[in-house]
Amino acid sequence: MGYSLDEKMVIGVSSRALFDLTAENEIFEREGLEAYCRYQVEHEQDILRPGSGFKLIRSLLKLNDSGKGRNLTEVIIMSHNSPDTSLRVFNSIAHYGLPITRAVLVSGASLAPYLAAFHTDLFLSACEEDVQCAIDGGIAAGIICTEGLRGGAQECREESAERHSQRIIPMPQAAGQIRIAFDGDAVLFTDESELIFKEKGLSAFEENERLHASEPLAEGPFASFLKKLSGLQRELGTENCPIRTALVTSRSAPAHERVIRTMRAWNVRVDEAFFLGGLDKREILKAFGAQIFFDDQTIHTQSAAQAVPAARVPYRSAAVK
């Protein structure tokens, strides 16, 4: 019987989300595809530094060591690289000891058809076009911030110094909790209520949420991903669970009640919730220790990315709403 992705959480990650390819991307934009390909081949033995999504991906892979008798997660490289230019990425994966064995390499073509084909639950990429296609196709996806913090880089440099005589760096014995934070409106929920705020103001928004407090909010682009995370939490057990989630929202009372009742209706677990009433989210996310934060607004992701890895969730295209 062939290998199956059924009952696994499937994460698609681009090479730029997993590794720091800032310099290489600049070569591509400044000098073109041929120069980029030549550079990658010439430097394929040079190990790439961890990127913004590295720490999250490593922690998700660590779930497969939970002793459940099966792999809980599957990470697949989904890249615009050609097979010929991909060796540097694979060499870097091996260097850090990441158990990633599957990849989609499309030589510049669209990745969109393959996201559904691999039953992708979450897609992380620095390419806005790819993420937009994923969102339009009903797949949770985020445009990862590649500026500011590059998650895991310092930690991995310390590991490299400690194990400088070893080519392959094993994953740590205790990777710690996976900590994922979500915005509410337009991320976990649709933007229906947020539009009332934008069009009619705060008072109208709060009155709408008060009147509809008992009605669950409609599912947004990350609802299915949160539900899958919650299912993993139940399977792994509540005591010392390696996954911890947080809702970090600009909502405040009285708009909080509808959110809590929605979570109950969905039968999902959110470990921590922060109703900030417009306060900046960065320090809260830093205190929570988020390995990634998903938000629909650039102002929030850019601020958050100075402290934790962050990804922007684009709105669905008007044509598919």
What do these coordinates show?
The two termini are 39 Å apart. The protein contains 14 helices and ten strands. The protein is 39% helix and 15% strand. It is globular. Helix 14 links the parallel strand 9 and strand 10. The longest helix is centred in the C-terminal third of the chain and has 14 residues. It has two domains: 154 residues, Rossmann fold, CATH 3.40.50; 143 residues, HAD superfamily/HAD-like (Rossmann fold), CATH 3.40.50. Helix 2 runs antiparallel to helix 3 and helix 9 runs antiparallel to helix 10. It has a ten-stranded mixed sheet. It has 321 residues and is of the alpha/beta class.
In short:
The protein is an alpha/beta fold and 321 residues long. The chain contains 14 helices and 10 strands. Helix 14 links the parallel strand 9 (292-295) and strand 10.
